[in-house]
Each structure stands twice: as structure tokens, then as C-alpha cells.
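Lab notebook, bench 4. Still working through the backlog of constructs that have no structural model yet. Next entry is a single chain of 89 residues. Request: give me the C-alpha cells for it.
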Amino acid sequence: MIQASAQQAKSCVELLKEFRLKGTDARGEKLYFAGVGRRDVYNVTAPFLDEGEWVIAGRVEDRASERSSIMFFCGEKREVDAARRGARL
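Model written out:
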């Protein structure tokens, strides 16, 4: 097992400096999700690989309700097959 020591840890100032020097592309884009109707999609994850396909998970809820469900989206932000969808919250 690898253990980090205080000597190996970088300060926030060092990490921020490295981040700024990288010239990271900070442009974003608006995502559109299929299969949610007029419901909102919140708190999406970073894309992750599932069964060879890139997937994004997100919390989906109607604005007039506090009840939400987690949905998984792939490809053109379509909902994944029911077998891979997972439990509803």
C-alpha cells in the first residue's frame, strides 16, 4: 500500500499554481437529457465507463416535488437500458 506523508503533500497554493500553469480548457457546454420530460437534472457526475460505454448519472426531479430519482444517461444523453438503470430513490 502507498502511504502519503506530509512531505509529499502539496499545499493548496502549490496545487492552484500548477492548475493555472496547465492552461486547462475551462469552457463548458449545456447538456440536454432525453427521457426526463419537463423534469430537471441536477448534480450530474463526471462521465464514467460502464460496460464499455460512457455514462453520466444525475438526480432527476420535478420542480414542484422534493421526490427525486437517479437516472443514468449515455451516448446522446439518452437514458440507459432499464436493466442497467439501477434503483430509484
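Notes after review: Residues 12-22 form the longest helix (11 residues). The chain has a mean pLDDT of 79. Flag for follow-up if needed.
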